[in-house]
Amino acid sequence: MDMNRLINMLVNMFLRKAVNKGVRSATDYAARRGKSDAELTPEDREQAKKMRDLADKARKAARIGRRM
Fold first, then answer.
1. What is the end-to-end Cα distance of the chain in Å, rounded?
2. Most exposed among 3, 8, 39, 58, judged by the fewest C-beta atoms under 10 Å?
3. Is the dihedral of CA 14, 19, 33, 44 positive or negative?
4. Of 55, 54, 35, which Cα lies nearest the Cα of 45?
């Protein structure tokens, strides 16, 4: 493997992790509707958890769809 392919592979690996982390934090922020954890009521926490779970299922479905 030449050096250019190796560097490209490493850069892509780090970028993928950074983008996934950014998407997850944005999804969590949207699920909480911009409120901090201290401001959430128990009902809000339950709804935020459901929204995060739904986003995870959608991400998995998209991954499966790309494989087909």
1. 29
2. 3
3. negative
4. 35
Residues 6 or more apart whose Cβ sits within 8 Å of residue 32: 40, 44, 48
Provide the phi-psi class of 40: left if phi over 0, else alpha when psi is between -120 and 50, else beta: beta
CB 55 within 8 A of CB 27: yes
- Give the pLDDT of residue 16: 85
Domain edges within the chain: 3-67
| Confidence at 21, pLDDT banded by 50, 70, 90 | confident
Q: Looking at this protein, which amino acid is placed at residue 9?
A: M
Opening angle at CA 65, ends 63 and 66, nearest 5:
65
